[in-house]
Known about the structure:
By secondary structure, this protein is of the alpha/beta class. The protein has a single domain, classed as Hypothetical Protein Aq_1857, Chain: A (Sandwich), CATH 2.60.300. Helix content is 23%, strand content 35%. The protein has four helices and eight strands; from the N terminus they run βαββββαββαβα. The strands form two sheets. Strands 3-2-5-4-8 form a five-stranded mixed beta sheet. Strand 4 (57-63) and strand 5 form a beta hairpin. The longest helix has 14 residues, at 13-26. It is globular and about 40 Å long. The mean pLDDT is 90.
Amino acid sequence: xxxxxxxxxxxxxxxxxxxxxxxxxxxxxxxxxxxxxxxxxxxxxxxxxxxxxxxxxxxxxxxxxxxxxxxxxxxxxxxxxxxxxxxxxxxxxxxxxxxxxxxxxxxxxxxxxxxxxxxxxxxxxxxxxxxx
Length: 132
């Protein structure tokens, strides 16, 4: 019996509810896991297409119907880690769409098990993603 690929990124029900609110206001959404100095390492939510992805970005999958990307260099550090997007009260220091709601997305993470790593979901660089 075929095994489902191990997802690289998950989302909590609370984050799904926030995504629903944002999608109602902004339409289709996308995420990019930031690694910058100004916004720490927060998952950033944008209107789909507002953040331009390319060969320096990696598509990790979808959360609640939204594509999720991170920089290729950051992926090298996090490729053995399953990410879960969550939301907490508080104001983040970023340009992410949830900030006016008084909440911010954050990442919870854990290392994959050896068994999970044997069945990983594929990743695509930004250019491959756009042509698949």
